Amino acid sequence: MKGLDTNVLIRYLVQDEPRQAYLASRFIEENCATEASCYINHIVLCELAWVLESNYMQGREEISAVIERLLLVSQIEIAEVEVVWRALADFRRSNAAFSDHLLGRSNQFMGCESTLTFDKKASTHPGFQLLN
């Protein structure tokens, strides 16, 4: 199994840097389509959401769709996939960042009763507590 960095995944998805897009596509199509899957961790998912929003002006709907498609690809293994599904559902119902929801759900998975934050948007969602 090979882990994918955000920049490789972005090049594969957006195809905007011809040489890097070619290399990323060739690697993913040759290596992630076999029994040896590719691995995406939570950091990559958070960076992916941020890069798609800030650099490619993608909205919440488009970002949600990309993450969902990644979750559905059998040749891609995603860390704590059920946690990511729950974070994605939270993200779709809110105005907080995907990374906030993934953080909250990851902490909940690890047994935390809440996640303390100064982020007022995040604090309005279950699992978060505003520290004031």
How does this structure look, described?
The protein has helices at residues 6-14, 18-31, 42-54, 60-72, 81-92, 98-109, 120-123; strands at residues 2-3, 38-40, 76-78, 115-117, 128-130. The protein is mainly alpha-helical. It has a single domain (2-130), classed as 3-Layer(aba) Sandwich (Rossmann fold), CATH 3.40.50. The strands form two sheets. A three-stranded parallel sheet has the order 1-2-3. A two-stranded parallel ribbon has the order 4-5. Helix 1 packs across helix 2 and helix 3 runs antiparallel to helix 4 (60-72). The chain starts with a strand and ends with a strand.
User: What's the CATH topology label?
Assistant: Rossmann fold
* Highest-level CATH class: Alpha Beta
Indicate the radius of gyration in whole angstroms: 16 Å
Largest beta sheet, briefly? 3 strands, parallel
What is the total tally of β strands?
A: 5
Question: What is the approximate shape?
Answer: globular
The averaged pLDDT comes out at: 93
Measured distance between first and last alpha carbons = 44 Å
Strand order in the sheet with the most strands: 1-2-3
Q: Number of folding domains?
A: 1
Name the structural class.
Answer: mainly alpha
Number of helices: 7
Q: List the quaternary state of the chains.
A: single chain
User: Which architecture name does CATH use?
Assistant: 3-Layer(aba) Sandwich
SSE order: EHHEHHEHHEHE
How large a portion of the residues is in β-strands, by DSSP E? Answer: 5-15%
List the uncertain runs: none
